[in-house]
Design goal:
Shape: globular
Structural class: mainly beta
CATH superfamily: Nucleic acid-binding proteins
Number of helices: 3
Number of domains: 1
Order of helices and strands: EEHHEEEEEEH
Radius of gyration: 15 Å
């Protein structure tokens, strides 16, 4: 679990590292991450070289199942500056609780990530969502799109140092 918040210069990354669930259980699989694994078909859609961003207003926090058989996830419906509704994918529900991400209906946000076509519709796979100058939700490493929910505690610690 790597959610990095910046609120008046403070980061909750240390809390995220302490509270992070293990990446691999004794059985070798985590049912709450099925389909969200680092090399899953879903994550292979993320091409960091296609990075884009847009601004908008949060309309709703939503439950998602991006592809059949995936563990439940969550995202946002964001109305962009052109008035279009964009479905933004944030990650699996086991990564963070939707009610704890610091975003709510009516918040003005800037979303960074990539556009992909899934199930015949365009969606936006977020790498980070920024609200004002004080709150930032990071769900993927910007330079390569690696999802933070797949990182080991050691990898998360290295990310914190960067």
């Amino acid at each position: 679990m790597q959610i990095q918040w910046r609120r008046w210069g403070a980061s909750l990354l240390a809390l995220a590292l302490v509270c992070a669930p293990p990446v691999v259980s004794f059985s070798g699989e985590r049912p709450d991450l099925v389909g969200w694994e680092r090399d899953s078909p879903y994550n292979k859609h993320y091409d960091a070289s296609e990075s884009d961003d847009f601004k908008g207003v949060v309309e709703e926090i939503i439950d998602i199942t991006p592809l059949p058989g995936m563990a439940p996830g969550f995202g946002l419906k964001v109305r962009d500056q052109d008035g279009d509704m964009v479905e933004v994918h944030l990650g699996p529900k086991s990564f963070a609780k939707p009610e704890s991400i610091g975003l709510k209906k009516g918040d003005k946000v800037k979303v960074k990530g990539v556009w992909v076509a899934l199930n015949d519709k365009d969606v936006f796979l977020a790498s980070k969502v920024k609200k004002g100058e004080n709150i930032e939700l990071k769900v993927r490493r910007t330079r390569d799109g690696a999802p933070y929910w797949t990182f080991s505690p050691e990898e998360l610690a290295r990310e914190k140092e960067d």
